[in-house]
């Protein structure tokens, strides 16, 4: 099995497509099955339905299972409709239980139950177990294909066992040791097993300091744990310490991508609409609630400007700096929001470090405010013929606004996180609108109080 570079991939793709075109089954299988699964998926999704039907005929369900598992969930649903019922059932029988469970979650309950009934009983039981856990928990994303050992086994016997059961396991780099009650008691790395004397018992090779996760742990916390420890896999245990399954690093990569996409959607107020493949109607439906809410916040901004109508009538020049103040406040607040959300997502913000982080952001806002105040005061004085009072008003407003905007941007996610909600929902547009309102209040309050000097 090889992973091809761009030039070789094109050559192989041409050979495979020619074999499909001429219905040369043997040539297709020889070339296609030699490819890395990623390249197989890429070629598979590039062909039209007529050629896909031939691929179903040319490949055994076990061979197609890896391709189906590598597809995005939306494409899986489409391909599933093309498959014969018996063929699809056999495909699911050869897929990892966690991949099947993930697919079934996206289907209607009746269809999912129908698929489970047609699968092998043993495979269906594993999938049902995963489906019984709450979504986005360790239990829901773990795989049941792993190797467990007894502490009384000898290394030579285990290596022989791996030759038989290893190909079906998700990973064999870590082997988990259980006692007679199926409780996790240790872990053996493949390296330690290989270099151990053949007659040495597993209990004398294994490490008893096993890092594990409970089946109800949030998937994001699991991902952070595997990242922190640089594990290839982590065992999942029940409250009674029974070994239930394992979570591998490739699952963690998917989790991180999923959580990052979700956070990006929250921060940009476009949750559920970041996928370029969704329709315009779906994207509009997902974005509409936030846009409408922010529109009402915009009415507050308009009301504030209306309240200071007399000030604007007397000094029309003040209106020219409204966009500058609003943009600066929003941008600075969004930067602090990103710092806070990232810190919470990575687990680097703790109770003891919250005050330090807020003080740092406030200090950053003060320094940015001072720099912008000095630059604006000088530029406005020059451009507007020595109108130093306008320069003072705009400069002081920028200084106060940026100083406070950084505090708001960093504290709002912390408050939302304290309420057990996703801190990313303190989205950029929301923070921007709040800081716009704050900036205008400061601006017009200062301008009105100094009106007699203008």
Provide structural commentary.
The chain has helices at 6-21, 25-32, 37-46, 49-58, 61-69, 73-82, 85-93, 97-105, 109-118, 121-131, 138-141, 155-165, 190-195, 219-229, 249-267, 280-307, 309-314, 322-346, 351-383, 388-418, 428-449; strands spanning 148-150, 174-178, 184-189, 213-214, 233-237, 243-248. The longest helix is centred in the C-terminal third of the chain and has 33 residues, at 351-383. It is mainly α and 454 residues long. It has 21 helices and 6 strands. It folds into 3 domains: 6-133, Alpha Horseshoe (MgtE N-terminal fold), CATH 1.25.60.10; 148-258, CBS-domain (Roll), CATH 3.10.580; 280-453, SLC41 divalent cation transporters, integral membrane domain (Tetracycline Repressor, domain 2, Orthogonal Bundle), CATH 1.10.357. The strands form 2 sheets. It has a 3-stranded mixed β-sheet. Keywords: CBS domain, Cell membrane, Magnesium, Membrane, Metal-binding, Transmembrane, Transmembrane helix, Transport. The chain crosses the membrane at residues 290-308, 314-341, 362-384, 390-416, 428-451.
Features:
454 residues, mainly alpha, MgtE N-terminal fold, CBS-domain, Tetracycline Repressor, domain 2, three-stranded mixed β-sheet, 21 helices, 66% helix, 6% strand
Secondary-structure map with pairings?
Blueprint: H1 6-21, H2 25-32, H3 37-46, H4 49-58, H5 61-69, H6 73-82, H7 85-93, H8 97-105, H9 109-118, H10 121-131, H11 138-141, E1 148-150, H12 155-165, E2 174-178, E3 184-189, H13 190-195, E4 213-214, H14 219-229, E5 233-237, E6 243-248, H15 249-267, H16 280-307, H17 309-314, H18 322-346, H19 351-383, H20 388-418, H21 428-449
Parallel strand pairs: 1-2, 4-5
Antiparallel strand pairs: 2-3, 5-6
Helix pairs in contact: 1-2, 5-7, 8-10, 14-15, 16-21, 18-20, 18-21, 19-20, 20-21
Membrane topology: Multi-pass membrane protein
Subcellular location: Cell membrane; Membrane
Protein name: Magnesium transporter MgtE
């Amino acid at each position: 099995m090889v992973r091809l570079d761009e030039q070789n991939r094109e050559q192989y793709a041409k050979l495979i497509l020619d074999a499909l075109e001429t219905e040369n089954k043997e040539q297709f299988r020889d070339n296609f099955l030699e490819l890395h699964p990623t390249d197989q998926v890429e070629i598979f999704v590039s062909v039209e339905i007529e050629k896909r039907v031939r691929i179903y005929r040319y490949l055994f369900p076990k061979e197609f299972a890896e391709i189906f598992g590598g597809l995005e969930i939306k494409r899986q649903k489409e391909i599933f409709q093309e498959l014969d019922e018996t063929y699809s059932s056999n495909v699911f029988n050869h897929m990892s239980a966690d991949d099947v469970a993930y697919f079934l979650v996206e289907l209607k309950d009746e269809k999912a139950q129908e698929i489970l009934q047609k699968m092998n009983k043993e495979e269906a039981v594993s999938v049902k177990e995963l489906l019984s856990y709450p979504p986005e928990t360790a239990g829901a994303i773990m795989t049941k294909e792993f190797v467990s050992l007894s502490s009384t086994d000898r290394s030579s016997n285990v290596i022989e066992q791996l030759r038989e059961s290893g190909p079906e396991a998700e990973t064999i780099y870590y082997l988990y040791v259980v006692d007679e009650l199926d409780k996790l008691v240790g872990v053996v790395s493949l390296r330690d097993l290989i270099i151990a004397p053949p007659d040495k018992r597993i209990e004398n090779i294994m490490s008893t300091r096993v890092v594990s996760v409970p089946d109800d742990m949030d998937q994001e916390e699991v991902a952070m744990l595997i990242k922190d420890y640089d594990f290839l896999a982590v065992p999942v245990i029940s409250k009674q310490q029974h070994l239930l399954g394992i979570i591998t690093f490739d699952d963690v990569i998917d989790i991180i991508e999923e959580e990052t996409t979700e956070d990006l959607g929250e921060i940009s107020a476009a949750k559920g609409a970041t996928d370029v493949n969704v329709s315009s109607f779906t994207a509009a439906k997902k974005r509409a609630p936030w846009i409408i809410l922010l529109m009402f916040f915009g009415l507050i901004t308009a009301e504030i400007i209306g309240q200071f109508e007399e000030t604007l009538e007397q000094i029309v020049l003040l209106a020219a700096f409204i966009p500058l103040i609003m943009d600066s406040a929003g941008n600075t607040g969004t930067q602090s929001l990103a710092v806070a959300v990232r810190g919470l997502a990575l687990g680097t913000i703790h109770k003891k470090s919250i005050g330090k982080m807020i003080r740092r952001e406030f200090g950053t806002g003060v320094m940015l405010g001072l720099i912008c105040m000095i630059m604006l005061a000088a530029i406005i004085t020059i451009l507007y013929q020595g109108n130093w009072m306008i320069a003072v008003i705009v400069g002081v407003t920028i200084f106060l606004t940026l100083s406070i905007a950084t505090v708001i941007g960093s504290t709002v996610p912390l408050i939302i996180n304290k309420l057990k909600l996703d801190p990313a929902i303190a989205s950029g547009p929301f923070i921007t609108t709040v800081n716009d309102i704050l900036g205008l209040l400061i601006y017009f309050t200062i301008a009105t109080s100094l009106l007699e000097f203008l």
